[in-house]
# Entry
Amino acid sequence: MTETKPSHDLLQKFDEISVKFGEAKTALGEVVFGQDEVIDLTLATIAAGGHGLLVGAPGLAKTLLITSIADLLGLSAKRVQFTPDLMPGDVLGSEVLEESAAGRREFRFIPGPIFCQLLMADEINRASPRTQSALLQAMQEQHVTVAGERHDLPSPFHVLATQNPIEQEGTYPLPEAQLDRFLLQIDIQYPDLDAERQMLGATTGEQSAAIKAVMTDKDLITAQQLVRQMPIGEQVVEAILSLVRAARPTDDAKAAVKNFVAWGPGPRASQAFSLAARSLALIEGRHAPSLDDVRRLAGPVLRHRMALNFTARSEGIDIDSFIKDLVAGAF
# Structure
């Protein structure tokens, strides 16, 4: 992949969309406090045309962030609370047998909540594997199949799922195939003291900040097209490939990877790096991604696409520190 110089018209479109994303970031910062990195990564996920998994303790504004993004970007949004008794038909929809006035019987498809532009899958790991798998086709192919019939989803279509890392009773781990379909796993930490103080003052008064749309769904589709047209330097491509391949426990891998990695990232990790790096550059007003973007995205791209073995866990090695060491050794 070679780097080519964008045309003047393309640069103008980049700048126009970047300004709108800047407005969205500012508006989100007024309702979600102390989570600037989370806001950037979530917007980058949407701009890249991908799906995001937000992992954090209760009360860290995961739901508020997602609903605010839907309002800001002008997307139709629906929320599904995932529970152990949730069935695939509750998400996808189902066919019902109806009888007309003339006595003719026929099946009619009733769309489920997945037929929207932004689906919030709240506490996704509380649903059974059967229900979780109902999202696989939709997330990858942008359509669902019910009773042998194909039903296309709206465009754009995104899933932003939330997961609570604390309460593990009554939960079902997401299968690797589904985790791989999330462009980024975004871990949400507690806000710092100043941000929490600001949040306390802004959210317990008589008025709260109002969210108004700064983009339309057509603007978002244009942004997603621009991301794929953005040039990416050969040095960035090589850094992505070097990092992803270094995380796989193959015969020629480094000793630490062989000893501690149970399974490593597949080719979708490289694709995620490329798209997310370019979308980060777009929303920040830069015309091309850099090596710093790759370093910044290493955790969100890799932490759900690889797993450490029992030996690593017994030695107190966690996935994020291991990824930091990979980055330091890769480039």
Remarks:
- The chain has two domains: 1-83+116-229, 230-331.
- The CA atoms of residues 156 and 221 lie 7 Å apart.
- Residues 1-83+116-229 form a domain with the Rossmann fold fold (CATH 3.40.50.300).
